[in-house]
Design brief:
about 200 residues; mainly alpha; about 0% strand
């Protein structure tokens, strides 16, 4: 591991631990998620800047860390990637559809490197969602299917993996015991698109 990647690992670990952040469904220390994102990014063409940003991708969104902190400790290039990966709706009082549309439009403007990290983030977040929370999964999968449409400049292998996970998840929710009608998914997606 390069010096900058190791520095980012330590920084992210400390930032997430400082607020005792935990994974929602497993209660694991939150750093397991950035670690998984780094591991996924490392399976496709990448550089150390991408790996450092993958470690740091949730620090500004979830901890007291600011983009200025990231810039000061890691430089402009990593801070720029982290900015592209940080949801812009965090402080918004808008409804969920409006917030997620803002975040999707922000992601659409990101670089190919940021989109690759975002795909890895999406893949890790989707891995066991249906098992843990099928009610939330039905909304989340629609949001991520819409997000996927703006991430095509990211790594094609990760894009295909994410697409497969989303499509498989939606198919599972159509089947027992969930039995969510296809019309519900179509209507929800239409609501997001109408809110643009």
């Amino acid at each position: 591991m390069s010096e900058i990647v190791e520095k980012a690992r330590r920084y992210a670990t400390k930032a997430h631990a400082s607020i005792d952040q935990r994974r929602k469904y497993t209660n694991d220390p939150y750093i397991v998620h950035p670690h998984a994102v780094v591991n996924i990014v490392s399976t496709v063409p990448h550089d150390e800047i991408m790996l450092a940003a993958a470690w740091l991708h949730d620090t500004v969104e979830d901890t007291p860390t600011t983009l200025e902190d990231i810039h000061q400790h890691f430089g402009a290039e990593i801070a720029e990637l982290v900015a592209m990966l940080t949801n812009v709706s965090c402080d918004s009082q808008a409804d969920r559809i409006e917030r997620k549309n803002l975040d999707r439009h922000h992601s659409a403007k990101a670089s190919a490197a940021a989109k690759t990290i975002k795909l890895a983030d999406l893949i890790d977040n989707l891995r066991s969602l249906i098992t843990h929370d099928p009610d939330f999964a039905k909304i989340y999968l629609i949001e991520k299917r819409l997000l996927l449409a703006v991430l095509k400049e990211g790594d094609p292998t990760l894009w295909q993996q994410a697409q497969h996970i989303i499509n498989d998840g939606l198919q599972r929710l159509l089947q027992p015991p969930h039995n969510i009608p296809n019309s519900w998914f179509d209507g929800t997606e239409a609501a997001y698109l109408a809110g643009e």
